From TrEMBL:
Gene Ontology CC: microtubule
Keyword Nucleotide-binding: yes
Protein name, entry field: Kinesin-like protein
Keyword tags: ATP-binding, Cytoplasm, Cytoskeleton, Microtubule, Motor protein, Nucleotide-binding
Residue ranges the record marks as coiled coil: none
Amino-acid positions noted as binding ATP in the UniProt annotation, renumbered to this chain: G31, Q32, T33, G34, T35, G36, K37, T38
Species of the source: Polypedilum vanderplanki
Cross-referenced InterPro entries: Kinesin-like_fam (IPR027640), Kinesin_motor_CS (IPR019821), Kinesin_motor_dom (IPR001752), Kinesin_motor_dom_sf (IPR036961), P-loop_NTPase (IPR027417)
Pfam families listed in its UniProt record: Kinesin
Region (Disordered): 312-362
UniProt record, GO biological process: microtubule-based movement; mitotic cell cycle
């Protein structure tokens, strides 16, 4: 059996099966940079045997739909995003560099605002979307890996299903998150600098937060889980200790030079294995679209059957409209015959006939206008009917019926998965038989060893057992020493981050203290508050302070060009002087002198807010 297919069948397949039953599932790939995380998740599309976990899940999902019952309906939608430098980006959106906000609601939990989602009809649609997103993903070259992923990618597949039994429809929804984490890396090995170093710092920071979350969940004594310290952990909040079946694939390097990173990865995954999640089936979720689509389809079908449409505020029945048109034609013909008979009596009653003829012509024109209006109404009704039919067809195409073959090109992949499952079952059966045989042999051997014919044999036997115990003890001591060394390295890394942040903080304080007086710093602190929704600090009434007001002033100055020559002050900033006035200082001059007595206008505006 191929190793990649073997990996999917043994590890990922049970998770996808649970998602199809209505549970949430997450599969993460974690490891050092260059160890094959992306290859594990995506693989190589050249042949079915080399495809990764994500493409194999496509064939698995639509193979399940093809085997489902006819009274079961499905809706499959997908989204693809990345976390690059702690910014969430939509890999399927039009604005690739736009940063999206992470929100949270009590009914649906954590979500990404304005993230695009697409309804898919078969495995090929999913495959094309994955390829499009991979092209837009941030990738860079380092000394360790020429195609290093510089972002965490999350490929989400939402599967909604409804089963109708005796006019009772039950909807359930499962969400599968396939996460390709960026690799942890050491600057001493990658020799990263500039943008690559900044990316590596953000990657290591988010992975460190992920490790802290895992440790806090395993510890069980922590009252606070730091999910909000990183966008990654916040988006994976349900996957870590929440409502999800979660699997972590740890990728390691066979190189001796990466021994330390390999041990660290295995311990990281070992801690994650101890997390206890609480997954439950999602029945009738509030954000499910399938039930809404089915209700809309029923309403559209009812409108088509009744043939009633709203046009210009009046209800028009399509069938009745045809009858009205025919009646109008008959009335016109009758009126024509009457007018001929009346024309024969023209000589006898000239005045009366003339008046009657004028009246007849007016009635005829009125009937013709009425017929034209009904014809227009009929055309509009038919147009409305066509629109409803098109909308109905579109909604029906989005909903997949059980029992339909939707694999197309993925048939070969599905057949390979089924063959691998059969081979796996045969292998497991043979393994169980061998395990039972081995247990019997081991029991007989132990029984023989326990029977000693003399004290000397007993001494030799117990000495061997003691040596085994000592070997186990030495192994545990060695592992403990390795763990202590790894902990020391992690502490040094944390201390280095603390020192770096302290230097940045000191620089910020130096700039603030040299450019903003103490009383205005206190004022700014007073009007600063923590925004829980976006997870950032914000300043109240910031639109009325600082350069925001200067922009408006500059626009006013531009409008006043006729009266006075406009001076561009966009490159000028303000400083404090002894006289209490502000003076313009250009960026290339020496650092301006500061004084608490100077009060620029934009700080005066902050003060006036109070």
């Amino acid at each position: 059996m191929n190793e990649r297919i073997d990996l999917y069948i043994n590890t990922a397949r049970p998770i996808v099966d649970k998602v199809l039953e209505g549970y949430n599932g997450t599969i993460l790939a974690y490891g050092q940079t260059g160890t094959g995380k992306t290859y594990t998740m995506v693989g190589n599309a050249d042949s079915p045997e080399t495809r990764g976990i994500i493409p194999n899940s496509f064939a698995h999902i639509f193979g399940h739909i093809a085997k489902a019952k006819e009274n079961e309906k499905f809706l499959v939608r997908v989204s693809y995003m990345e976390i690059y430098n702690e910014e969430v980006r939509d890999l399927l959106g039009k604005e690739l560099n736009k940063s999206l906000e992470v929100k949270e609601r009590s009914d649906i939990g954590v979500f990404v605002k304005d993230l695009s989602g697409y309804v898919v009809h078969n495995a090929d649609d999913l495959d094309n979307i994955m390829k499009l997103g991979n092209k837009n993903r941030a990738v860079g070259s380092t000394l360790v890996n020429q195609q290093s992923s510089r972002s965490h990618a999350i490929f989400s597949i939402t599967i909604e299903s409804s089963l109708t039994v005796d006019n009772d429809t039950k909807v359930k929804m499962g969400k599968l998150q396939l996460v390709d984490l960026a690799g942890s890396e050491r600057q001493s090995k990658t020799q990263a600098s500039g943008i690559r170093l900044k990316e590596a710092t953000k990657i290591n920071l988010s992975l460190s937060v992920l490790g802290n979350v895992i440790s806090a969940l395993v510890d069980g004594k922590s009252s606070h889980i730091p999910y909000r310290n990183s966008k990654l952990t916040r988006l994976l909040q349900d996957s870590l200790g929440g409502n999800s079946k979660t699997l972590m694939c740890a990728t390691i390097s066979p190189s001796e030079s990466n021994y330390v990173e390999t041990i660290s990865t295995l311990r990281y995954a070992g801690r994650a294995k101890s997390i206890q999640n609480h997954a439950h089936m999602n029945f009738d979720p509030k954000d499910a679209l399938l039930k809404h689509f089915q209700q809309e389809i029923e309403e559209l079908k009812r409108q088509l059957e009744e043939g009633v449409f709203e046009i210009g505020g009046d209800e028009i029945d399509a069938d009745e409209n045809d009858d009205l048109s025919e009646e109008s034609d008959i009335e016109i013909e009758n009126e024509k015959e009457k007018s001929k008979e009346k024309s024969k009596k023209k000589k006898a009653k000239a005045n009366k006939d003339e008046m009657h003829k004028e009246k007849s012509d007016a009635e005829k024109e009125l009937l013709e206008l009425k017929a034209q209006e009904h014809e227009k109404a009929l055309k509009v009704a038919q147009s409305e009917q066509d629109i409803i039919r098109a909308k109905l067809q579109s909604l029906e195409n989005k909903i997949l019926n059980g029992g339909e073959n939707l694999l197309e090109k993925a048939n070969q992949q599905e057949q390979l998965l089924e063959k691998s499952i059969a081979e796996l079952e045969a292998t497991n059966k043979k393994e169980q038989e061998l395990q039972q045989t081995l247990q019997k042999i081991e029991a007989e051997r132990i029984d023989i060893e326990e029977r000693y014919s003399s004290l000397q044999e007993e001494c030799v036997g117990k000495t061997k057992k003691l040596q085994k115990v000592m070997q186990m003890l030495m192994g545990l001591k060695s592992e403990l020493a390795d763990q202590q060394q790894e902990q020391q390295r992690e502490k040094e890394g944390i201390y280095e981050n603390i020192r770096s942040l302290s230097r940045e903080l000191a620089l910020c304080e130096l700039v603030i203290n040299n450019y903003i007086p103490k009383e205005y710093q206190t004022l700014i602190d007073k009007f600063t508050y923590w925004n829980e929704e976006i997870g950032e600090w914000q300043l109240k009434c910031v639109a009325y302070t600082g350069n925001n007001m200067r922009k408006n002033i500059n626009e006013q100055q531009k409008n006043a060009k006729e009266e006075k020559e406009y001076v561009d002050l966009s490159h000028v900033y303000l400083s404090y002087n002894v006289d209490g006035l502000t003076e313009p200082v250009r960026g290339k001059t020496s650092r301006p002198k500061t004084s608490h007595s100077g009060v620029p206008r934009y700080y005066q505006r902050i003060n006036n807010i109070n």
